[in-house]
Amino acid sequence: MPRFSIIVPSHGVAGRLGQALDSVLAQSFGDFELIPVCDAAGSPAADVAARHAERDSRVAPVHAPPAQGLAGARNAGMRAATGTYLLFLDGDDVLVPGALAALEARLARTGDVDVLHFEHERVPWWEGESTNPAAPLLAHTPDDAFTPDRAPRLTGVRLPAWSAAWRRTFAAEQCLAFPPGHFTDIGWGGLAMLGAERVAVLRAVVVRHLVRRQGSRLNLPGAHHADLLDQTDLVLTRAADLQVSADRTRPLFEQLFAVVLKTAAHPRRLPSGRRAFFRRASALYRRHRPAGFRPPPGSLGVQHRLLAAGAYPAFAALRGSRRAAARLAAAVPRPQGLRTRLLYRMQLRRPLDPHLAVYCAYWGRGYACNPAAIHRAARTLAPHIRSVFLVEADQAHTVPEDVEYAVIGSRRYWKVLARATYLVNNANFAEGVVKRPGSVHLQTQHGTPLKTMGVDQSTYPVVAAATGSFTKLLGRVDRWDYNLSSNPHSTRVWERAFPGSYEHLEYGYPRNDVYLTAGADDVARIRAELGVPEGARAVLYAPTHRDHHTGFEPGLDLEAFCAAAGEDVVVLLRAHYFYDRGGSGGGRISRVSQVIDVSAHRSSEDVCLAADALITDYSSIMFDYAVLDRPIVVYADDWDVYRETRGVCFDLMAGPPGPVARTPDELARVFRDGSYAGAESAALRARFRERFCAFDDGRAAERVVRRVLLGEPPESLPPVIPLAERVPAPAAATTPVRS
Fold first, then answer.
1. Model's pTM, two decimal places?
2. Nearest to 472 by CA among 442, 432, 504, 436
3. Which residue has the higher pLDDT, 581 or 534?
4. For residue 582, pLDDT beyond 70
5. Considering Cα of 404, then 410, then 413, then 415, what sign does the dihedral take?
6. pLDDT, tens digit (0-9, with 9 covering 90-100), for 646-668
7. DSSP 150
8. How far is 421 from 412, CA to CA, in rounded Å?
C-alpha cells in the first residue's frame, strides 16, 4: 500500500498537465501512486498521462466523463486509490520540491490524523507577488494533533481540497465524496471537518497553485452560482444533524455566508436571477442561523442584516452605492485619422450585420491559408453570408476576381470590421478592432508549433524583443471566441501560449483539405505551371525564419546540393513569408539552373502538391506536408542554436518526420542513395503523421463553416476520417503526366 495517492483531474489543462505530473515524479519521497484522471482514452490529457505511465509504473491513469465535472473526476480517482492518504492536485498546479517528504515527516510527529492541512502558494500567472492565503488561518492552530473544537475557525470551507492530505480510510468510513456541481471544495471540506476527530497542520507550502489568467471558473457569470447555495445548505444541514456545538457552527455559518454575500453583491457573477439568488440565500440564512450569532461589524454586517430581513431592494442599493458613482466609459482603441475614427465609432453604434463575414490572412498579405480555404467552403455551405477579404493595397491583385475585398486602412475596411458578425484571421486584426457583443472571432492559426509561441516566448530575449507588448498580445487573444487546432499537440501549446476563454476547435487546418481532395491532374497542372521538368524529382526546400538573422539566408548551397544529389533533382526554393521575396509581382517564379524560386507563388499548398519530397529545417510546413505522406528530410545544421535562441516546445530530433541531416554532404547522400524515401524514412513519417495529422482529413473547412458560421452543434459535424482510411493526393512519381 503506497503512503500517498495523488489524484490529478486534467480536464481543460492538457497544456500544463505534464509539469504537474513531473512535479510529483520528481519528489524525493517516492512511496506514492499518481492517478491522473482524464476525459477518455485518446484525449489530449490522456495522451500526456499515457506517456508518463510508460516512463513510471507509479502512474496509473483512470477516466471520468467530462460531464461529471471536477467532482466526478476526483471521485473516480478516489475509487482507484489505495494509499494511506489522499492528495488532490489540480492539473495545472505543482507540488513544490520536497513536499511529500515534508508531509511524511509531519505525520511521523503527529501520528495518524484524519486531515492534515498545509499551506499553499498562489502564483500570479504573469507578474505580481505570490501569496500564501492559508498561512494566517493555520498560524493560530495548536502545534500538535488536535480535535476540531480546539480550532473552530478551521472549518474546511476556506481551503481548497488540494490544501490538505486526507486519510483514505477516514473518507471511506464517513462515506465522503465530492458533492456534484460547482463549489464542490466547499461541500467536501465542510463535511470532512465536521466528521474529523483528529486534525493537524503543516505550516509549510506544499502546493504551488498557478493562478489562471482568466481567473477561477467559479467567478465567471452564470447559473452555476446557485450550486453555492446547494453546498451551503448541505454543510449546514449536516452540522445540524450532528448537533455540532455553537462554538463551531458560528464560524462555519459566518464563513459560508461570507462567500454567499460576495456572490450576491457581484453583478458580473449573476447577470440574471440576482433577486431569486438573494431570496433563496435569505431563506437559508434564517433557517441555519446559529443561536446567539452576531453579524460582523461594518458593511459586511449590514449585508448580513439585509439578507436576514430579505430586503433585496436595500441590498441592491447598498451594492450600487459601493460602486463608483459614475464610471468613465473604457477608452476604445481607435484607428488613426480623425475622420476614420469618427466613422468607425459611428459604425460601432449600428447593429451587427448577421450575414457579414470578414477574413484576413498574414496581416493582409493576400488571399491565402486557412481563411481563404474557409471562405471558399462558406460560399458553398453558407451562401447567404456575404464575405469580404481584407488585404494591403499592394496585395489586392492576389484576390480572385469574384471575391469581394477591402483595402486595410480604408474607410470601407473600418466599416466592415465594425459591422461584421464573423471575423476570421490566421494572425491578428488591428489593435483598434473592438470585440463587439454578439460578434464571433475565429483564430485559425497558420501552422503547428515547434517553436515557442505567445507568452512562452517571454524567456527568450531575442524573440521577446521582436514580439512587442505581451499585454497587447493577450488583449488580442481576449477577442477570440474560437481557436483552430490541427492536432492535440497544438491544442496543448495554444492553451499554454495564448491563455484565454476561447473554445478549441480540433478540426484540422482547412488549407490542408486540398491534400486529400486534389487528384493526379491537379498535381500535373501545378508542376507544369511552376516549370518542373517532366520526370524530375522536385524537392521543396523551405527553411524557416531565424530571429537572430536580419535577412533571408538560404542556409544551403542549392546548386551544389543538386549536383551532388542527382541530375534529375530540381529544387523548389520557398523562403519564409517574412522576407516577402515576391514583392508586388504576385506569382512570378524565377529559375536558375536546377533551382526554381517559388517564394512569390501565393499558394504554399500548390508548391507542396508539386513536390515529390520536402527538405526543411524547423518550419511548420513539415506538419502540413506530412498530410501528403511523402518523404521529408530535416536539415538541422544549427538545431542547438535555434533551440537556445528561439525555444522549442518538443524535441524534433527525438521524433523527426524522416531522416535528419546535419551537413550538406549528409543531405545530398540521403537523396543520392534513395534512403530519403526508404523503409526507415517511411516508419519515421508514419509515427510523425499519427501524432501531428490527427484531424487533417480533407473536411476541416466544412466542419469550421458548419460550427462557426452556421452554428451547428459539434455532434452534427462530419466525424474525422481515420488516418488509415485517407487517400492523399498522388505524388508525380506515381502520376502519369498528361501531354
1. 0.71
2. 432
3. 534
4. no
5. negative
6. 889 899 999 999 999 999 999 99
7. G
8. 16
